[in-house]
Specification:
Elements: H1 3-13, H2 20-23, H3 34-46, E1 48-49, E2 56-57, H4 63-70, H5 79-91, H6 102-113, H7 117-123, E3 136-138, E4 152-154, H8 155-171, H9 173-177, E5 184-186, H10 191-201, E6 220-223, H11 238-245, H12 248-256, E7 262-265, E8 268-274
Antiparallel strand pairs: 1-2, 3-4, 5-6, 6-8, 7-8
């Protein structure tokens, strides 16, 4: 075993990306991918970049969604992750290096954005109309997060959300023990009020808030998936987003939300959009 492989396994053993037990099952690709594993082990913490216009260090916040796309549970410091990444890169006509880079991230971002009908409408310069009021249903008090007050969701979205939360509480001890988790702090937002708010706060940049927001559809939900002390529940600070993506509740959503018809927004761990139940 090379020094590089030992270094990668040491990082896994720290428990930051899956724990020591996983290191025993994620080096089956062996020496062929040890160099790539070492490169990923370094860059996952040290890459200096600004994928959404804000300076970030490392790419740990995007690991759960990338693992889901690669169909692997192996951490980014392991040879098996590198091998799976190379296969995925080849599938999308990238050079199959097995090393995470900004071109790989660009494809990941595009793949996930294409699953959001709202985003596809915006690429056509369309802004979807809000649903008629009879198509909106009220959340219960237990479904609303205390930090914000939201009231309405599209009825099909609300039904799917309730099914998803019930499943999460059955499956995840953390979620079951904390009723605050998966509460909604933003659902349907009146388009005129939302546009006025982003103009007033001068953050209509399409990343943090947009003049035409997906929340106008009644099918977008901002879910409480945790909170880093000292930050708002929807803070876009890199440290805050990274902390949320390490939680068991968020990782369950990554693995299971699609079964209920929800797709993620890569930049905001709390933001999910209902696109219809599979086969529905």
């Amino acid at each position: 075993m090379t020094v590089r492989t030992l270094f990668a396994i040491l990082l896994v053993g720290l428990g930051l990306f899956g724990g020591a037990a996983r290191a025993q099952t994620c080096d089956r690709s062996g020496e062929a991918w040890s160099g790539q594993a070492f490169a990923n082990a370094v860059s996952v913490y040290s890459l200096e970049w600004a994928p959404f216009g804000q300076a970030e260090m490392g790419w740990g916040a995007y690991v759960p969604l990338l693992q889901h796309e690669l169909r692997t549970d192996c951490g980014p410091t392991t040879p098996d992750f590198a091998a799976a990444l190379a296969q995925w890169q080849g599938r999308y006509a990238l050079t199959a290096t097995g090393v995470f880079d900004q071109a790989t991230f660009g494809v990941l971002k595009g793949v996930l954005q294409e699953r959001r009908p709202f985003v596809m409408a915006r690429t056509r310069d369309e802004c979807p109309d809000p649903p008629p009021l009879p198509e909106l249903g009220y959340l219960s008090a237990e479904e609303e997060h205390a930090d914000r007050l939201t009231r309405l969701l599209r009825r099909d979205t609300l039904a799917a959300y309730r099914d998803m939360v019930a499943a999460a509480r059955r499956d995840v001890a953390e979620t079951r023990a904390n009723p605050e988790l998966l509460q909604i702090f933003s659902g349907f937002r009146d388009p005129e009020a939302d546009a006025a708010r982003c103009a007033e706060q001068r953050n209509c940049d399409g990343v943090r808030r947009a003049v035409c927001s997906p929340h106008r559809t009644g099918a977008a939900v901002d879910l409480f998936v945790g909170q880093l002390e000292g930050f708002e529940v929807d803070s876009t600070a890199p440290a805050a987003r990274l902390a949320l993506t390490r939680g068991a509740t968020y990782r369950w959503l990554v693995a299971n939300a699609g079964r209920f018809g929800f797709v993620p927004y890569l930049y905001e761990p709390w933001h999910w959009e209902f696109v219809g139940r599979p086969g529905g």
